[in-house]
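Bug #77: duplicate submission created two jobs. Keeping one. Sequence:
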Amino acid sequence: MQTGNTVFAALGVSDLPISQPRLSWTKSLCSILSFLLGSAAFSTFHRLMGGRKRWVLMLSFTIQTAFIALSALLVQNGKSSDSPAKKPPSLDPSFVNITEDPGFPWTDLIPIGLLSCQAAGKVVASRVLEFSVLPTVVLTTLFNDLMSDPYLLTAGIFSNVQRNRRVGGLAFYFGGAVLGGVMAKSSLGLAGALWIAVALKGAIILVWLVWKEDTSDDTEG
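Kept job's structure:
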């Protein structure tokens, strides 16, 4: 979500929002820089190796999956902060207040960087596969395009492919966010949600093995 990260990084110059710990803006900046690096790396990889070749797509998603798995391990092993949905220890009546400042959680920047970098691979893949209509990151333009469709309500169920993809993408996006929130508040926490993402991306890698080859463009193999 680099739009939000850009806004938070800009507000950080003025030490805003006040409710956020000092230096929190560095997390947003880390995410932006990692996303830029990932976009450059994944796009270059696809361009040099052959955008839609089976092994290229499989390797791209394998790298993305590995980055999420590493982030999940860091959170699960306590090397990085857990779910922000959980109450901090200071709200626990049995918590003993310690005056020593624990400092800024710099280790959080590692999973943030990894997740942002792999997210760029997903966006690059959507461009390579020419499915830019799907909501890989930003939903604002998708909402606009959906409501601007003159055949939104008049077209048959299966006759408006782009509308169906937009609606389906929104449904999965919203459902995924709800599921992530539920898991973040549960005992599984953020690590559990990340492991589900690992499983889903791993399934995509396996799907590439059996996906029917497109022989219309010989240059893509």
